[in-house]
């Protein structure tokens, strides 16, 4: 007969089990719960970030640093394993720290256990984001793990990644090695396996535990319990429109064409024919004809406006004239019209604040507006203008433009 346990013995056994659970729980603890990945608000810039020795934004040291291993901000002298002895004094601030971790960039207190154990057990040793490939030192936010593939994610990409993580690399749910339906899925490799190919020969599997992936060793899950989706390719027409170039219609004669010519055609004879109903074909043809008509109208309107702008620039280039009049050495030889134009420009106060090549260019535009000529499209600034000042004067006299 075994001896009956006393109450004190029962308490001791429960305490041992509890301590064992606490030690094993650290391995299963989430990354966001570790002290080296805790929230920290800078004392100077008031920005929230991961627990760091120095602020990521202003590089300032915090008034009360937190240990990245045990999470304490004050050494109470209860453990007795302090490397720096401070008998009868509670140490805080820089008197409590002993090192900086190279992986998580957090302070480690001067306790012997923290200094010896943290560097080997730091949870952020390989914390490189799956999306942006940034490490702990490259961004200021906290580090998280994907709940599906168990990969590291930064604070900026965690939601975007998890929204697209349950997508298989194949176009169906079939096993990677055979043509049977894959009942097990690996969320890290994004592949499916059947009952036969998910298990490897000569490998001993534990009971009541998830079967590891034969490729990467990550725990697989049953496909029916997940909301997995397959990779899909959406093929369609790509109608490219160019503003510049000829007025040729883009719908025929080249690659990626739908209506005719050469390229990627469906069926035969260069035409993209598919077995749809007659009503759908008629609707598509009507939509295409309407879009082609609108594109032709927009192109013709653009060309007409462009020709009008070019003619305006050639026939009424006043900036060139103003620059030549202002640069002339003999101002007395100018006509009364030219002198009045220069006088009008000098009296224009807004020309002093013009952010152009010179104030005379802006004043010339003012002169164009005063004369009733549209000068918004004139960019023939001196000396790139091909027309001479005499030719401009003759054009203005011929068109009877009063300047």
From TrEMBL:
<keyword id="KW-0863">Zinc-finger</keyword>
<dbReference type="InterPro" id="IPR010531">
    <property type="entry name" value="NOA36"/>
</dbReference>
<dbReference type="Pfam" id="PF06524">
    <property type="entry name" value="NOA36"/>
</dbReference>
<keyword id="KW-0677">Repeat</keyword>
<keyword id="KW-0479">Metal-binding</keyword>
<feature type="region of interest" description="Disordered">
    <location>
        <begin position="269"/>
        <end position="298"/>
    </location>
</feature>
<dbReference type="GO" id="GO:0008270">
    <property type="term" value="F:zinc ion binding"/>
</dbReference>
<dbReference type="GO" id="GO:0005730">
    <property type="term" value="C:nucleolus"/>
</dbReference>
<protein>
    <submittedName>
        <fullName>Zinc finger protein 330 homolog</fullName>
    </submittedName>
</protein>
<comment type="similarity">
    <text>Belongs to the NOA36 family.</text>
</comment>
<keyword id="KW-0539">Nucleus</keyword>
<feature type="compositionally biased region" description="Acidic residues">
    <location>
        <begin position="278"/>
        <end position="292"/>
    </location>
</feature>
<keyword id="KW-0862">Zinc</keyword>
């Amino acid at each position: 007969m075994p001896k009956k346990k006393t109450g004190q013995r029962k308490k001791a056994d429960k305490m041992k089990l509890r301590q064992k659970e606490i030690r094993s729980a650290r391995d299963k603890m989430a990354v966001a719960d570790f002290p080296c990945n805790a929230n920290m608000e800078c004392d100077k810039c008031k920005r929230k970030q991961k627990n760091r020795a120095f602020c990521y934004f202003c590089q300032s040291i915090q008034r009360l640093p937190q240990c990245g291993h045990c999470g304490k901000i004050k050494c109470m002298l209860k453990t007795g394993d302090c490397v720096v002895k401070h008998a009868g004094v509670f140490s805080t601030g820089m008197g409590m720290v002993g090192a900086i971790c190279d992986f998580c960039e957090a302070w480690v207190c001067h306790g012997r256990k923290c200094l010896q154990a943290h560097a080997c057990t730091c949870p952020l040793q390989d914390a490189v984001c799956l999306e942006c490939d940034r490490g702990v030192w490259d961004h200021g936010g906290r580090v998280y793990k994907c709940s599906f593939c168990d990969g590291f994610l930064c604070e900026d990409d965690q939601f975007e990644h998890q929204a697209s993580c349950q997508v298989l690399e194949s176009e169906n749910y079939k096993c990677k090695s055979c043509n049977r339906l894959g009942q097990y899925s690996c969320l890290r490799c994004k592949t499916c396996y059947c009952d036969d190919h998910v298990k490897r020969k000569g490998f001993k599997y534990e009971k009541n535990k998830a079967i590891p992936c034969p490729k990467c060793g990550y725990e697989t899950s049953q496909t029916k319990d997940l909301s997995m989706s397959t990779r899909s390719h959406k093929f369609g027409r790509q109608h490219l429109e160019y503003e510049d170039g000829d007025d040729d219609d883009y719908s025929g004669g080249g690659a990626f064409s739908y209506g005719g010519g050469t390229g990627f055609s469906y069926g035969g004879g260069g035409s993209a024919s598919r077995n749809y109903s007659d009503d759908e074909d008629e609707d598509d043809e009507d939509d295409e004809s309407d879009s082609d008509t609108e594109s032709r109208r927009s192109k013709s309107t653009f060309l007409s406006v462009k020709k009008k702008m070019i003619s305006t620039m050639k026939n009424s280039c006043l900036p060139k004239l103003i620059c030549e009049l202002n640069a002339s050495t003999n101002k007395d030889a100018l006509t009364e019209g030219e002198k009045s134009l220069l006088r009008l420009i000098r009296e224009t106060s807004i020309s002093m604040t013009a952010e152009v090549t010179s104030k005379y260019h802006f004043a010339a535009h003012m002169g164009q507006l005063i004369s009733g000529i549209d000068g918004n499209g004139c960019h023939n600034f001196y000396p790139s203008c091909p027309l001479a000042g005499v030719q401009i004067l003759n054009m203005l006299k011929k068109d009877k433009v009063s300047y």
